[in-house]
Design a protein that fits this description.
single chain; alpha/beta; Alpha-Beta Plaits; TIM Barrel; 3 domains; eight-stranded mixed beta barrel; rod-shaped; binds ligand C2E; binds calcium ion
């Protein structure tokens, strides 16, 4: 059974599941996204670390190469200083003529390879070459040293001239890149410039020949050969240091410039990049963190998915619970509405609805208790399910109402068959444990195309048809048609008019005489309500009493009639008064009090009042009826059973309720002269009444013949158009009664 309900609610369920799935999906996306972001960030920072480390390494490479060059230049400056600032050299060179042998001994050999220079030159104060030895050969052209020397001199000539410095720089000689150095030749412990110190002037130095401007400069070169380069690189820890033509810009490189800033050559080397190693070292940690984060995210997603599923499931259960009727286990009203609105959404077209309302369920509840009532509902639910066609839904709409929903072209036929089976089952006695109850059902059927009608309209129509079954006698099936709506509207309009009419005093009471069978004298009148001042024209009681009953308006209307009749007849002690009471009034627990209030209010003597009730209510609710009858009789009111012969009222009833009178309905009494069966029934009824000592009135007497036959049959009094129509009290008195005084005087 559960599976069936679940199936019926599956449409709804798929919604929930899909939204839960969507949520889980979102969480998964967010989780995976976060993970990806974390991994990406970690890798980005790894490569940033590597890049930065490489940058630092690159800079360090530069610094090392620079340091190597600075050191080479410093070495060269040192060598030149050692050779230029030297007493012997000053002594030898500040003369007219040089000792070539000495020069050769000192500096000539150097250029052959064993000394830290490969070229030595002596220049005069105009920087003209006086002597030169270059790469092991005598040299007379100082221009072979390239522009580096000139720019060096141009940049430092004051300091060089003053002997304050030995300047060194790069140059490109005819032989290749080299370091060139220039310094003033002077004695070690002497004045800065030789010519300023006469004592220091070596012997033989030609005195007077521009002694103050005479200068001897030592220029030394050292070519940067690949081998030297390699040496220097090894010392400073630079890999693959080498020359490269100027113009290539792939890093790393360092451009060697002369003292004038002109590029001489460029160096390149293989950088020692440790970024990859650093990153490699960090990578394993990063990977660990990534894995850990990944695992956490996965756990998070799993936990979310799990709780979502649990939530969805418990929500499902809650929904299923909310959609199920606890007592019968059937889907409830809401489930039916949901299904209907769902099929509207999916445009499933034709639908038929059967509405079943149990008749007399309330009595079973009242008499046997709610437990029995609940059991009855369960028995009915189980039985109805047995009649349910395939692909149909049965719901308990609440209380004693059930509804069946079926779709498709065969829906109407299947709905009809289901309704018939249900009616047959519910109309038969039903066993509940030890007891057997007799209920019934009022059934309505409607079908509509949900493309053209709303589901609410479909349900309303089925309900309306069911209501019509109930109102028109119960225990039947009604199919909805537009006339039902029209009737309903008419009814509603009358109800509205009646309400207003009661307030505006549109109602009147007329009286029909009831005569003695033998004397034909009026002994009593029946009060009958009229609506003569209705704006849309008068309406007969047959047309509005039912509506007054179903709307509750019968209470004020009945009170009005009773009060009016009592006050009208208070001063006619010769006339008894009969007033009609509706079942709805009888049902009112305060009814007896209301009657006694009116009696007090009007001063009407209770022994002249007779209330006419129909048997319907007595059968429907015997307990309350017995109590009401007992109370009314205790007040002193007489009771008549109205319309006898139209229903089921048996002799048993007559005895049980202790009626004072029965009124044989005009459908029997009025046919006594034409219908032998009716005549036989009248005779039988009269003899029973006699046996029970109950008075008998025959209604609907229209002819003298009928009056005679009814007298012969044994009726005590007669009522009908033959004696008088319902009319104003004044006219009854004028036409049918002798003046009260005359009656009195005759009697006296
Ligand atoms: P009822 O109680 O059976 O009232 C008698 C009805 O039979 C009256 O119809 C009356 O006019 C009609 N009648 C009397 N003699 C003849 C006859 O010889 N031939 C024919 N064909 N009809 C005759 P009315 O006044 O239209 O009332 C109809 C029903 O409306 C009443 O039936 C009663 O059930 C109900 N009713 C009328 N007034 C009241 C009222 O004040 N309270 C309640 N609760 N019901 C009322
Ligand atoms: Ca009556
Ligand atoms: Ca009657």
């Amino acid at each position: 059974m559960i599976s069936r309900i679940l199936a019926q609610l599956s449409a709804w369920r798929s919604h929930t599941t899909s939204s839960a799935r969507l949520l889980v999906g979102l969480v998964a996306i967010v989780g995976v996204g976060t993970l990806a972001a974390i991994v990406f960030l970690m890798h980005a920072s790894l490569s940033a670390i590597a890049e930065k480390t490489d940058q630092i390494d690159m800079m360090r490479g530069h610094e090392l190469v620079q340091a190597a060059l600075v050191s080479a230049i410093a070495q060269m400056s040192e060598t030149t200083t050692d050779n230029a600032i030297w007493d012997d050299a000053a002594d030898q060179l500040y003369r007219e003529t040089f000792d070539d042998t000495w020069l050769h001994q000192i500096w000539g050999a150097g250029s052959s390879g064993t000394k830290p220079y490969d070229g030595a030159f002596i220049l005069d104060e105009t920087y003209a070459l006086l002597w030169g030895r270059y790469l092991g050969q005598p040299e007379s052209d100082v221009r072979r040293l390239g522009s580096g020397l000139n720019t060096l001199i141009a940049a430092h000539h004051r300091d060089i001239e003053a002997g304050r410095t030995v300047a060194s720089g790069f140059t490109m000689t005819t032989h290749g890149p080299a370091i060139v150095s220039i310094g003033l030749i002077r004695p070690l412990n002497g004045p800065e410039t030789p010519q300023e110190t006469p004592q220091g002037t070596p012997q033989g130095t030609p005195q007077g020949t521009h002694p103050e401007t005479m200068r001897r400069y030592l220029v030394m070169t050292q070519h940067i050969t690949p081998q030297r380069l390699a040496n220097q690189a090894r010392i400073f820890g630079v890999k693959d240091l080498a020359f490269r033509p100027i113009g290539e810009t792939t890093p790393p490189y360092l451009i060697l410039k002369d003292a004038g800033g002109q590029p001489v050559t460029q160096l390149t080397w293989t950088p020692e990049l440790s970024g990859a190693i650093t990153a490699g070292a960090a990578r394993s940690r990063v990977e660990q963190v990534s894995w850990l984060t990944g695992a956490l995210v996965l756990i998070f997603i799993a936990v979310t998915a799990f709780s979502m599923r649990k939530l969805a499931r418990s929500e499902n259960e809650a929904r299923t619970f909310a959609m199920t009727d606890g007592l019968s286990g059937l889907p409830n009203r809401r489930a039916l509405f949901d299904l209907l609105s769902d099929s509207r959404r999916t445009k499933r077209g034709r639908k038929s609805v059967v509405f079943i309302d149990l008749d007399g369920f309330k009595d079973v509840n009242d008499i046997y208790g709610h437990n029995t009532g609940d059991k009855l509902i369960m028995i009915v639910a189980a039985a109805l399910k047995g009649f349910l066609p395939a692909k149909a839904m049965l719901a308990r709409m609440g209380g004693d109402e059930f509804a069946m929903l079926i779709g498709g072209a065969e829906g109407p036929a299947k709905a009809q068959a289901f309704a018939e089976a249900a009616l047959a089952f519910l109309g038969a006695p039903i066993r509940i444990g030890d007891i057997t109850v007799q209920i019934g059902a009022s059934i309505g059927i409607a079908d509509a195309d949900l493309k053209a009608r709303t589901s609410q309209e479909l349900l309303r129509r089925a309900d309306m048809a069911m209501y019509h079954s109930k109102a028109s006698g119960k225990g039947r099936i009604t199919h909805y048609d537009a006339e039902l709506d029209a009737a309903r509207h008419r009814k509603q309009a009358i109800e509205k008019d009646m309400r207003a009419g009661l307030a505006r005093g549109e109602f009147d009471v007329v009286y029909q005489p009831i005569v003695d069978t033998w004397t034909h004298r009026t002994t009593s009148v029946e009060a009958l309500v009229r609506w003569p001042r209705r704006p849309d024209g008068p309406l007969a009681p047959d047309q509005f009493i039912d509506i007054a009953e179903s709307s509750g308006l019968i209470h004020p209307l009945g009170q009005f009639v009773l009060r009016r009749a009592c006050s009208d007849l208070r001063d006619r002690p010769d006339l008894r008064l009969s007033v009609n009471i509706s079942p709805a009034q009888f049902r009112d627990p305060l009814f007896e009090h209301k009657v006694s209030d009116v009696l007090k209010e009007t001063g009407f003597p209770v022994e002249r009042l007779e209330l006419e009730v129909t048997e319907g209510y007595l059968i429907e609710n015997p307990d309350r009826a017995i109590a009401a009858v007992r109370n009314l009789k205790a007040l002193g009111v007489s009771l008549a059973l109205d319309d006898f012969g139209t229903g089921y009222a048996s002799v048993g009833y007559l005895r049980r309720f202790q009626f004072d009178r029965i009124k044989i309905d005009r459908s029997l009494a009025g046919r006594i002269d034409t219908d032998r069966q009716a005549a036989a029934l009248v005779v039988g009824t009269v003899s029973i009444a006699h046996a029970l000592e109950i008075a008998i009135t025959a209604e609907g007497v229209e002819t003298a013949e009928q009056a005679k036959l009814l007298r012969l049959a044994g009726c005590h009094s007669l009522q009908g158009f033959y004696f008088g129509r319902p009319q104003a009290l004044a006219s009854v008195i004028e036409t049918f009664c002798e003046p009260v005084g005359i009656v009195n005087s005759q009697a006296s």
